[in-house]
C-alpha cells in the first residue's frame, strides 16, 4: 500500500507505524516491568520513559539484528517447534495442576 502514497499520506503511514511501536513498547513495559520508584509522579514518569527506552533498545537492536534475514519458512519452522512446544507444555502443566 505504500507504493501508492506520497507526501502527507505517506507521512501518516509512517506516523501510525511509529505510534504503534510506542504503544506496543509501553504495553510491554507495563505488563512485564511494572513498579514505581517514588511517590512523585514526575519521577515515576521519567522512570517509565527510561524503562521504555531500555526495552526499545533491547527489542529493536537485539531481536531485529538477530533475525535480520529470517525468511518466512524459517520463522514458521522456528515458531512451530519451540514456542508452540512451550505453549503446549504450559497447557499440560496447567491442566494437571502443577
Question: How do you describe this structure in short?
Answer:
This protein has 3 helices and no strands. It has helices at 8-32, 41-66, 72-96.
Number of helices: 3
Strand content: under 5%
The quaternary organization reads as single chain
Q: Sheet bearing the most strands, described?
A: none
C-alpha-based Rg, rounded: 19 Å
Give the low-pLDDT segments. none
Task: Give the helices and strands as they follow along the chain.
Answer: HHH
Number of strands: 0
Provide a descriptive summary of the structure in words:
The chain has helices at residues 8-32, 41-66, 72-96. By secondary structure, the protein is mainly alpha-helical. Helix 1 (8-32) crosses helix 2. The longest helix is centred in the middle third of the chain and has 26 residues, at 41-66. The radius of gyration is 19 Å and the shape is flat. The N and C termini lie far apart (48 Å). The mean pLDDT is 88.
Give descriptors for this structure.
single chain, 98 residues, mainly alpha, 3 helices, flat
Topology:
Blueprint: H1 8-32, H2 41-66, H3 72-96
Amino acid at each position: 500500500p505504500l507504493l501508492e502514497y506520497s507526501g502527507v499520506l505517506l507521512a501518516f503511514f509512517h506516523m501510525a507505524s511509529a505510534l504503534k511501536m510506542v504503544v506496543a513498547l509501553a504495553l510491554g513495559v507495563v505488563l512485564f516491568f511494572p513498579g514505581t520508584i517514588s511517590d512523585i509522579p514526575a519521577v515515576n514518569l521519567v522512570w517509565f520513559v527510561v524503562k521504555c527506552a531500555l526495552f526499545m533498545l533491547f527489542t529493536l537492536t537485539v531481536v531485529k539484528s538477530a533475525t535480520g534475514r529470517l525468511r518466512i519458512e524459517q520463522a514458521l519452522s522456528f515458531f512451530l517447534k519451540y514456542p508452540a512446544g512451550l505453549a503446549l507444555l504450559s497447557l499440560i502443566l496447567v491442566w494437571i495442576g502443577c
